[in-house]
Amino acid sequence: KPYGWATIAFNTKQGLMTDVRLRQAVQAALDVEPMILAGVGHKDFYRIDPGLFFQEMPWHSKVGAALYNQKDKDKARRLLKEAGYAGQPMRWIVTTEYEHHYKPAVVAKGQLEEVGFKIDLQVSDWATVVQRRNKPELWDAFSTAFTFVVVPTTSSQVLCEWPGWWCNPEKDALLQAMGRELDDKKRYAMWEKVQTMFYAEAPRIKIGDYFRLDARRKDVAGYEPGPYMHFWNVWLDRR
Q: Is 223 left (phi over 0), alpha (psi -120 to 50) or beta?
């Protein structure tokens, strides 16, 4: 811990999910715990938490938490009605190569269809998902995960240029200002504004944190687990 968090990314540039009310309807409807449990298989390997950075990190915040894991089907149906949704299929690209991508999507499909969405789950290999997600005319949502990063200004989950293209002038200006600001308290306040916008605009849906299990042979000495495997100061002790 920590390692990554599973997500649904929306296409905010072109197509169905450019309507913020439809994204908010998805956010309102989902019950994320059965989704992440399906993806990782055991309660020791996931955590339900709204933070875009992990609890173990100084950037962790719970702002916007009221919009996370709402499980509010009535609200979702109201938002669909307000948006004038008429049953257009949401084209959702996903791979079976990663269970924490595919299985949460299958669970979410059932939850969303219950409130009135029509989900077109398009399954392929991961390389095809990566290729297609760069073409906004081909998709409305895709499944992926964000792994450990150190600072918000390099975090794919909030960057404008990352597939999904969540471009908000205020958000982008805050990220640029964070790169220039040296006062940690001011930077944290800026980050909380970004996370607030993340939940208000729902460009991606956070599902939950997930963790990794590392194993080593007893003669591998010096290895310390971390977000990424690292092998400096590691040696074989075969005495």
A: beta
